[in-house]
Amino acid sequence: MTGPRVVIIANNVDEVGGAQRVVHVVAQQLALRGHPVDLVGVTPFEPRHDFVAEPAYRRFTLMSQQWPAPPAKKGLSGALSVSAREREAMRARLRREAVRSLAAVLDDGPPGVIVTAQLWAMEHLAEVQHDAWAVIGQYHSSYEAAASGRDLPRALALYADVDLFTLLTREDADSFRRAGLNNTTWLANPLAFWPELAVAARETDAGVVTYLGRLSTEKGVGFLVDAWGRLAERFPGWRLRLVGSGPDEKAVRARISGLAVGSDRIDVVPPVADVERELRGSDLLVLPSLTEGLPLVLAEAMALGLPCIATDCSAGVRLLTDDGRNGRLVPRADGAALAESLATLMADRDERQRLGERAREAMRDYRGDVVIDAWERMISDVLR
Question: Which domain, by its residues, includes 307?
Answer without folding.
Answer: 207-366
